[in-house]
Structure prediction request, 658 residues.
Amino acid sequence: MSKTSIEGADALFQIAEPTAPQASQRAPGRGIGIDLGTTHSLVAIAPHGAAPRVLRDAEGRGLLPSIVSYIDERPQVGDPAAARQHERPDRVISSVKRFMGRGLAEVQFPHPYQLGDATGVLRVAVGDGREVSPVEVSAEILRVLKLRAEAELGGPVDGAVITVPAYFDDAQRQATRDAGRIAGLKVYRLLAEPTAAALAYGLDRNERGLFAIYDLGGGTFDISVLHLHSGVFQVLATGGDSALGGDDFDRALAAVLLARAAVSTPTPAQHDAARLAARALKERLSSVEEDRVSVPTIGLHDVSITRREFEAVIEPLAQRTIRACRQALKEAGVAVAELSGVVLVGGSTRVPRIRQMVEQAFGRAPLSDIDPDEVVAHGAAIQADILSGSERPGVTLLDVVPLSLGLETMGGIVEKIIPRNATIPISARQVFTNYSEQQTGMVIHVLQGERELARDNRSLARFELRGIPRLPPSMARVEVTFQLDADALLTVTARELMTGVKQSVEVKPTHGLSVEEVDRLVLESFDHAGDDYSARSVAEARVELGRVILAVRGPLAEVGHIEALLPPDDRMAIEAALREADDAMADSDSDADALSRARVRLEHTSEPFAARRMQRALSAGMAGKSLAEIEAALAADDLDVRRGGHGPALVPPAADGA
Ligand code: ADP
Ligand code: MG
Prediction:
C-alpha cells in the first residue's frame, strides 16, 4: 500500500515556513466538468455559481459518442467515427474506457481489436504499424470536449474535473488523469460518478444522509451507496455488472424481432437492422404513452411491439440490477429504510419499467428531474467551478481531511501537521530536529488521528531518513512536507536541509477507514482529552529532561578531571543532580512536575560548568579559530536546549544509540 523512494541530494533549499497551506493558482469560472463515459462523453460548465449546462456541438448534440476512428491519418471522434465502424471495426475504437489502466492479461471480454503490450503498456494496432494506447484514445475524446468548452468560454479552459466510476482502481484513475494531461487539460481532480450525480442534485446541502445511485448506461450497470457527512461524500459500497446495460436490451429485443420475422440465420445487414429497430422501439416506448409502437425499418416486416412485450424481454436483465442493488446495500450495511434518496443516472433509466422497479425496490420515488445522461456532467461542472475559485452560494463542498495527519516525535508524542477538517488539496511543512548527537537517522512515522500520543493513533507509514550528519542535539534541521492532493493521496517528504538527503512515501489515508470509524476516533479523542493532555505533558517533560541529561553527561565525560573547568565540588553537585534526574526518568510514575523539577535542578547545578566551557570556546576563538567554528562550539555548549532547537525532535532508528 505504500511505496518509498529515495532520491539523492537535491539542490532545492527552502526557508521553511511552518504549516503554511498553499492555495494553487486559480481562474474563477473557467473550470469544466467532463463525464468521460463508456458509450458517450460530455462536457458541462457552471461558471461563477451558475446552474450547470451541457455544451452542445453545432448540430445541438450534447452527447459525444465515445468512439475514435484511426482509419485516416487524422483521428476522427464521435459520430463521424461511429459512421465508419463497419468499414474497419478493428480501427474504430469504441468503449475504450474498458481498457483504461488495464494490462493485456486483464482484457477478458470480446473485442475486435489487435492488442499488444510489447512496450509494457496495452496498445491497439490501428494499421500501418501505428499503435495507440487507451490513454491516447481517451485524450482524443477529451480534446474535442475541451475545444467545445473553449469555444463556449471564448478563451482557454483553466482546468477540468473528470468523472470515473467509483470502483476504478489507482491504475485506471491514473490513466484517466494522464489522458486529461495529454489532451492539454489541468485535471483539478477526478470525481466518482455517483458522487457527481449526488452533487448535481444538491444532496451535499443536506446535513448528512445515505444515498443510492443507480446508474444504468449502455454497457454497464453501477450501483453505489454513498454516505454524506459534513459536506463530504464517502462511497460505502459499489456493485453492479460491467456487462449489463441498455445495449443488452437492444440485443434481446432484436433477437425477438428476428425470430418473429422468421429469420433464423440473419445476415449482418439484417442483424444491424434488427438492432437499430430494437433501439428505436425501446427509446420510443420511453418517450410516448402508447402501448404499441412501431418504427419503419428495411428488411424486417413486423417492427411494432407492445409495452408488455418489451417489458417481458428486459425483465430478467432488470431483475439482475435489482439483485445487485440489494447486494450493495448489504455490503454497505445499510437498510433500504435508512436511505434518504435514490438517484437515477444513465440513458437506460429512461425506461419506465426500470423506474418502476427501482421505486419498488427502494420504496421511494427516485430523483430523476435532471436528464440522466447529463447528471454526472452537471455534478462535475459544479465541482470544477468551485475548484476554479468561484464562490458558489450555499455550497460548502470541498473534500476535507477526516482525521488529523501528523508525525511521531520523541517521547511518543504526536505533532499534527495537517489538522482535521482542512480542505484538500493542501500542503503543509514543518521543521524537526535531532535528539542526540549520536543520531544519524530519523524515523518518519506518519500518523492519523486526534490523540496526543502516537500509540493511540493509526499508523499510516514509517520510513527512515538515513545518512544525516552528526550534529549537536537540536541542531539538525529536517523539513517534513505533507502534501495531500485532491484525490486524497498523501505524499510525505522528509529532507535534511544541510545535506539535501531526501526520502518520501505515498499513502492513502482514507484507505480502509469507514465513516463509523472516523466518527468513533473523533469522539474518542474528546473523551480522552483530559488524560491525553496530561499524558502529553508528562511525555514532553520526559523528553526535555532527557535532552538536558544528554547535554550535561557528554561534556562531563569529556572533560575528565580538568579541574579548571570542573572543580570537584561542582562535579559532585552535578553528579548528584544527574542521579536524581536518572531516577526521575527511570520511575514510570514520575509526573510532569517531578520531571521538570529534576530538569531545573540539573540545569541550575550545571550552569557554572556550562559558562566555563563557553568561556573556553571563546578563548579558543582568539587562538585562530574561524567564526563558524566558534559558533558551532558555542551552540554545542548551549545548555538551554529548550531554546536552541529547530522544532520537536524526531525519533532515532532502533539501531542508533541516542
Ligand atoms: P454510458 O454511461 O455507458 O456512456 P449512457 O448513460 O450514455 O451510457 O447510456 C446509453 C444507453 O442509454 C444506451 O443503451 C441507450 O440506448 C440508452 N438510452 C438512451 N436514451 C434512451 C431512452 N429514451 N430510452 C431507453 N434507453 C435509452
Ligand atoms: Mg455513464
